[in-house]
Amino acid sequence: xxxxxxxxxxxxxxxxxxxxxxxxxxxxxxxxxxxxxxxxxxxxxxxxxxxxxxxxxxxxxxxxxxxxxxxxxxxxxxxxxxxxxxxxxxxxxxxxxxxxxxxxxxxxxxxxxxxxxxxxxxxxxxxxxxxxxxxxxxxxxxxxxxxx
Length: 148
Hints:
about 150 residues; four-stranded antiparallel beta sheet; 2 helices
């Protein structure tokens, strides 16, 4: 059912059955809103709420860094590795590794700190096997000031 705009009767205009049918159709249309997997729809006093958080959580899991390895700063980015543990889920990196996203390969790295927030991204590899990727948010590129 297509939801059409409700034409409000003008002041002093009689309310007709057509006005009430349009209003009833709009209310019924709003009551028929349903959600797909991972999306939650609820009716509240303020209106219809559509929440995407469950869908987001299916793929993105907040975590904390539990171990940060390498010099600080480190001229060899591949030396800066991390272990992390998910918050509220049983996901943990037992082998330290470089971040899967956000790393600038040819730059000196200032490593993130233990207990910094990071994320796991859940997806599948090219063979369809589930995997977890690491995203470190607080790692920085080391810079030097040049004398003028």
